[in-house]
Amino acid sequence: GAVVSQHPSWVICKSGTSVKIECRSLDFQATTMFWYRQFPKQSLMLMATSNEGSKATYEQGVEKDKFLINHASLTLSTLTVTSAHPEDSSFYICSASSWGLRETQYFGPGTRLLVL
Amino acid sequence: GENVEQHPSTLSVQEGDSAVIKCTYSDSASNYFPWYKQELGKGPQLIIDIRSNVGEKKDQRIAVTLNKTAKHFSLHITETQPEDSAVYFCAATPLLSGGSNYKLTFGKGTLLTVNP
User: Fold this and answer.
1) pLDDT at B97 over 60
2) What is the distance between the alpha carbons of residues A94 and A75, in angstroms, rounded to a whole number?
3) For an engineered disulfide with B13, which of A2, B8, B17, B110 has Cβ 3.0 to 4.6 Å away?
4) Per-residue pLDDT at A52
5) Considering only alpha carbons, which residue of chain A is nearest residue B5?
């Protein structure tokens, strides 16, 4: 149980284009989803928190117009990197928690983004 | 806010030996402490967690201990195997009442290498 998937697992795009990453909870209802960014050999950096049907709450320093987050259903959240630039290249990971165990986060496998 | 320190940053052991990773936290309100294992190129996987109402929890070769007075918790892996090689992250969060989201504060990670 508690499986979270991400799609795509990796993506290469040209500078200036937008990229959408999907995060799905496969066997539970995710009342809250989190989006993280991870640089090589570093810890996870929380970008934003989203509750189903509500606007995402962004961490300080994260541009909400750059990283658009939608959490339209209890099993799906999307992160769209708009007008991507090479500095947006990173490993993006989502996590999800359910109402019954709100403190426990289950992570997806991550999406590797490379912007050329 | 919460601050989590994790040591050591790297740990190399021989197969069959034990490995111990230690974390300290600053916020006395924190009372949920998960440990994640992250293999190269993958998302973090929850391996064990502990809540502040217990001092120790064990799951086969993995155990976690918690000392709330000293504000530190540790991960113990016994009879290590090469497949235990990965980066391990500790984290902490307070268990808040109401509709609050539980944001995890992560340590910087420990790269564990188990040599055959």
Assistant:
1) no
2) 12
3) B17
4) 83
5) A43
Give percent of chain A above pLDDT 90: 80
Euclidean distance between CA atoms A73 and A76, whole angstroms: 5
Indicate the burial class of A81 (C-beta count within 10 angstroms; 0-12, 13-18, 19 or more): buried
**What is the C-alpha separation between A61 and A48, in angstroms, rounded?**
11
Phi, psi of A75 (to 5 degrees): -125, 0
Q: How large is the average pLDDT for residues B63-68?
A: 96
Task: Read off the tokens for A89.
Answer: 């290249």
Task: Answer for the pair B14, B115: CB distance below 8 angstroms, yes or no.
Answer: yes
Return the structure tokens found at B10: 């790297």
Residue tagged 């919460």 (tokens): B2
Give A 57-116 residues with CB within 8 A of chain B.
57, 93, 97, 102-110, 112
Q: Do B101 and A102 touch (CB under 8 A)?
A: yes
List Cα–Cα distances, A85 to A11, A94, B31, B50, in angstroms: 13, 21, 39, 40
Segment holding B92, helix H or strand E: strand B86-94
Is the pLDDT assigned to residue A40 strictly greater than 70? yes
Cβ pair A114, A99 in contact under 8 A? no
Copy the structure tokens of residue A18: 């937008």
**Is the preceding omega at residue B8 within 30 degrees of 0, hence cis?**
yes
